[in-house]
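Now for one record.
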Amino acid sequence: MALTDIAALNQQSCCATAGADDKNSILISNQLEKIEVTATKVLSPVRKFMAVSCTVKNATDSPIVVDGNNANLKFADAKINQSKTLKQLDAIDKPPTSGMPLYVSDLKSTVTAALTIGAVQALEGARDLKKPVLKRYKWDEERRTNEEERFGKRLLYPGDSTTGNLYFSQSNANTDQMELNCPIYSFYNNDDQANLTQRILKSSPL
């Protein structure tokens, strides 16, 4: 069965079969060696944030939920760097929608249009039309792409694997001083929980 983002599930837990009782007897914490994890620091597609590409493969015999929303980086000095939320990602380079920033943006557009008789806006429109279709949507397309690539809360059935980016505040620490911690739990039993721990690798080149 293909990977399904947990946010897209429609309360499927109520449809669990009687066989779930047998699967619950095998605790996730006792099967961590069957869950393959790699975490690599990569060039971040989101300005201001550090990106860690995380791949998880479920080789157990039970569906698991990997909770990237609550992942964190732990450093050698015990400092904790919590993963960034969707709201924090979307706020990067977001066009102003209210208040003084919107006023300044509108004033700038009005003045340049008046002084150039609309030439600036016409040239900007012509330039955008030469770009690939998706690039014409600018921030909105970047937002959609970042949300798709972000490793949030994901459901993995046995044999499934998934890759996504976790975002954190920038850090100058060496990757060998970083450790990724990511909660997981059984799809059939939320009380059956464990924590994935993985040292961060450094991609080459960054």
Summary: The CA atoms of residues 25 and 192 lie 10 Å apart. The two ends are 34 Å apart (CA to CA).
